[in-house]
Design goal:
The protein has helices spanning 2-18, 43-61, 100-103, 226-232; strands at 35-36, 39-40, 77-86, 114-125, 129-137, 144-155, 163-174, 179-191, 194-199, 203-222, 237-238, 251-263, 266-275, 279-289. By secondary structure, it is of the alpha+beta class. It has a single domain, classed as Porin (Beta Barrel).
Length: 290
């Protein structure tokens, strides 16, 4: 019964997430930076807006901490649907100036949060290795996200010592005619798996809390006319030290915490990611582990 109900819930969530209207309401429109209500925008304001939007968008699309400290094992497979709610900066300034996200929004009235539904899969490999990927959609936009990652369980299954894994991944922002953007993430996750149920070892579930720390490195480039780029003072920027337009402002500490509840082959996952001074996101999902 639990599996049937979860299958129905996941199928319904997928239908809602991936059949939304093809609208541009939440597209990032960099050409809007030139003016606001018909008046020219100061170059310094345009540059600050571009930097904040790029940083928050990069953090929002980056791979999220949705797996516990342990890996799946060589025969393991994980598939499911999840959702990210990212709290972007849409509040107007105290002087009545529009928020950075309002300036790059087609209507000037962005949603208070960015909602990203995901379809995810993860496969276990020998030597405590895993590979995984995600397909995401920024709700009410024409943009999608493709991401992939690899994980390695450095230490797992030696109770009572917590499990430890590391991850490296990359996410790409696809479908925007005015902005190219991607985010590299790497992190370490420390967690523990606790069995519970009426007959532990026979008829049981698992609760796996975990904590993580890592870094997200963003890079971006405008895809607008070069004369307009010069007018706005924006261009290619990168958090990679050898990249064109390098700046430390695109390298972000990412702290995370979450848990997984596994009953049979059905799982519920919840996690929070926090980048100090930049972005907080809440992430949840349902799926199956085989």
């Amino acid at each position: 019964m639990l599996r049937s109900m979860t299958t129905l819930a996941v199928s319904s969530l997928g239908a809602v997430c991936f059949s939304g209207p093809a609208t541009a309401a939440e597209d990032v429109v960099l050409s809007n930076l030139a003016t606001w209500n018909g008046s020219p925008v100061d170059q310094a304001v345009a540059m600050d807006t571009y930097e904040l939007v790029v940083n928050q968008l990069g953090l929002a699309i980056s791979n999220k901490p949705m797996a516990p400290g342990e890996t799946l094992g060589v025969f393991g497979f994980d598939v499911g649907l999840s959702s990210t709610v990212a709290f972007i900066d849409t509040k107007d300034g105290s002087s009545g100036q529009p928020s950075p996200w309002a300036r790059v929004n087609e209507t000037g009235e962005p949603n208070a949060v960015m909602w990203i539904p995901w379809l995810s899969a993860r496969k276990g490999l020998p030597l405590s290795l895993e590979i995984g990927g995600n397909l995401g959609y920024i709700a009410f936009s024409r943009q999608t996200i493709f991401s992939g990652y690899g994980r390695w369980g450095l230490w797992e299954g030696y109770h009572p010592i917590p499990d430890l894994s590391i991850q490296v991944g990359y996410s790409g922002y696809v479908g925007n005619s005015e902005l190219e953007l991607g985010a590299l993430d790497y992190s370490a996750t420390l967690g523990y798996t606790l069995p519970f149920g009426s007959l532990v070892g026979i008829n049981q579930a698992q609760f796996s809390p975990y904590l993580g720390v890592g870094q997200v490195i963003v890079h971006a480039a405008p895809r607008i006319d070069e004369d307009l780029q010069q007018e706005l003072g924006i261009g290619r920027v990168s958090g990679f030290k050898k990249g064109e337009g390098y700046t430390d402002a695109l390298r972000h500490l990412a702290l995370s915490g979450g848990f997984r509840v596994l009953s049979g082959d059905v799982q519920l996952r919840m996690a929070v990611q926090f980048a100090p001074g930049q972005l907080t996101s809440i992430n949840g999902g349902l799926g199956f582990v085989y």
